Amino acid sequence: MRGVVFTGDRGVELRSFPDPEPGPGEVVVRIRASGMCGSDLHTYRAPAAAESGALVVQGHEPCGEIHAVGPGVPVEMAKIGDRVMIHHYWGCGTCPDCRTGWPQMCSVIEPRVPTLNEHGGHAEFIKVPALQTIPLPPSLSFKAGAAIGCGTGTAWGGIERLGNVSGRTLVVFGQGPVGASATMIAAALGARVIAVDVVRRRLDAAEKFDADTVLDATAGDVVEAVRELTGGRGAELAIETSGVTPVAKQALDVLAPWGKACFIGIGAYVSFNTKETLRRQLTILTSWTLSTVQQIRCAEFVVSHGLPVDEVFSHTWSLDDAVAAYEWFDQQRDGKGVFVP
């Protein structure tokens, strides 16, 4: 098979690998869609390692069809031709975290993660434990399944961390793939969503995804604008998806007393002085992707509310276009890309 690898310093190559063979308890999935995630860029931009070693295939948002089934996998769990999403972490399978659907929190072994220590989905096939496959609802496309596996699912996980958003004002900082999904989901749940970004195209997309108000962060003071929109009180809720430290500060500053902020973006430093914030009674949360159970719930919600998750993807690429795809994605000026092998 062919697969996309990062060679360091924004280097991308399409290399040949042996077709995977499923072992006991494993399946091989033929990839039909593999999403590009903002977290890919941390590896893409990293310097080339002094000792290159074996490179793994990138892409941790795969979705496709069961191509081969290993020994010991019950037919009720997986059979050839099944359409499946993939929960892109796996652990020991027996500890409390794994058993509750959080293998990325496994306390027994280092979790296995496509793109880090296992081959990922920017390829023609991927091998995974059968337990990590999740049925893709018939009405959802493979692209939607890829989005729910990480970007859209990460937004769902953050919203679940905040709790009830219905009837409340939620400021979503960043309207990239995760932020756009948070806007779409929260609006469908009945929140009043204020979407913030610095890119006009992303703000236009947020309006299409039913944001109540969009704010261009380059046009003025976001915190003051939110206070004006909320009668001076501030927002009950905020989600930060950009991973940018000054934006993380804004996410705290826009909150009303008793407000909650959930931080999803990778890389921001979040700090506060207790003398300045103590009497505001704030709740500060972090959220890391989602559990297998949440992935199922997210897909069911997307189906029941007819959410246009496919539209989170603004560009579709072939594996042959991997170099151009990541050069485009590196600019972070548009939506989300997806490979269709």
Automatic annotation (TrEMBL):
InterPro entries membership: ADH-like_C (IPR013149), ADH-like_N (IPR013154), ADH_Zn_CS (IPR002328), ER (IPR020843), GroES-like_sf (IPR011032), NAD(P)-bd_dom_sf (IPR036291), Zn_alcohol_dh (IPR050129)
Keyword Zinc assigned: yes
Pfam families in alphabetical order: ADH_N, ADH_zinc_N
Keywords, sorted A to Z: Metal-binding, Oxidoreductase, Zinc
Keyword Lipid metabolism among record annotations: no
The Enoyl reductase (ER) domain, residue ranges: 8-339
Cofactor(s) annotated in UniProt: Zn(2+)
Entries under Gene3D superfamilies matching the protein: Medium-chain alcohol dehydrogenases, catalytic domain, NAD(P)-binding Rossmann-like Domain
Entry's family note: Belongs to the zinc-containing alcohol dehydrogenase family.
Name of this chain's protein: Zinc-binding dehydrogenase
Species in which this protein is naturally found: Amycolatopsis rubida
Source organism phylogeny: Bacteria, Bacillati, Actinomycetota, Actinomycetes, Pseudonocardiales
